[in-house]
Amino acid sequence: MTAKVLVAYGTTNGSTARIAETIAEVLTKEGLPAEARPAESVVSLLPYDAVVVGGGVYAGRWQKNARRFLRHHRRELSQRPLWLFSSGPLDASASERDIPPVPGVRRAMIRFDAREHITFGGCLEKGAKGFIAHRILESGKGGDFRDFPAIEAWAGRIANELLGAPQEERKG
What we know:
By secondary structure, the chain is of the alpha/beta class.
């Protein structure tokens, strides 16, 4: 039986949603039914066999809906394979090196025995909400730093782990 995967995300300005959608698209393409959903819209994890949760990082904290998702679904999450991702650096640092999770995410990794965490670059463009976002944009430090090939590769590794075979063997 093929695992069904939920990719839940917490986002303020939408860039984490696009990362989650990309992960779900790759998992589906690899043969794992997957759907990306806003964390606050998920009522139950019963339909899912595995979960990926992502959140934007703001001032050293994961986005509030991602944090709430982990708290609300803590029992169900402890019974499923779990991967976590963060988005946020507004520079190329996430593509250049591994960025450790913020403290709250690190604690969640331990609590839920998460398989892996990765940080992807973020995106902050004109129209973003919030005072700090406006200040960052005014300073000229906004932009799109998401590395979609890296996001796709990470999703491919999740698929490989859930399907239990290296990608080359499955496609061969």
